[in-house]
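User: Predict the structure for this protein chain, please.
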Amino acid sequence: MGITESKFSEGGIKVIEESKVSAILEKYPQTFNRMYIHQYLSQMKRIIDNISVEDIDRVIELLFSAWKEGQTVFTMGNGGSASTATHFACDLAKCTIVEGKKRFKVICLNDNIPLMSALINDEGFDNLFSEQLKNLMRPGDVLIGISVHGGTGKDKAGLWSQNLLKAMMLTKEEYNGTTIGLSGFDGGAMKKMADACIVVPFNSTPQVESFHLVFEHLICSCLKEKIKAYSEPENPKARFNFARKTTSEKAKASVGHK
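Assistant: Here is the predicted structure, written as structure tokens:
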């Protein structure tokens, strides 16, 4: 089928095939930008309609539980996902603060550049995150891995994101921790490994990375509201100690009056 102007102007196009981009630019140089913008935003609408609300809900509850128990949350990613990991850690630490309530303990494993380069140089890229966890992780802590393909696929350097998968395996096997994934495409190996994994169901790296940021903002915003509304359960031991202290103070006061 040939390229027709109405095909674009009516909004029927979903994907501009890479092989046809040059032909489209040549035939419609004045309208290509709008065609592309329309396509990109239409894709976003489709993604929103197909995202699993249940998976987002589960991630929120796992992180809320980590906050209540005082567990540390670790984030990690490669490439663009590394910046999302840093962003996520920043927002969990800062944007969930509620006056008078305890705060999230969160560390991004992408932020110590000298340590990262030393580990890559001496231990290899596959061990980049797992080696850091051996210094920091405690039983029951939480690890969030962010990856466009979820550890599936490969390029010139070999299989993608094996360092993420290795760290997730360590978390489960050595620390009985909780693993959370943010992935895209079909979810990859991360979807199968993680206790909860939010997948952007679309085969486009820009779209997947964009929605990962949407997810982390949504999650942190929701967590702040839950923290606001949360009341710590009363500690029976603390109540006993308070009562004992009060009784002791009354006894001292009584002795003082005699």
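The radius of gyration is 25 Å.
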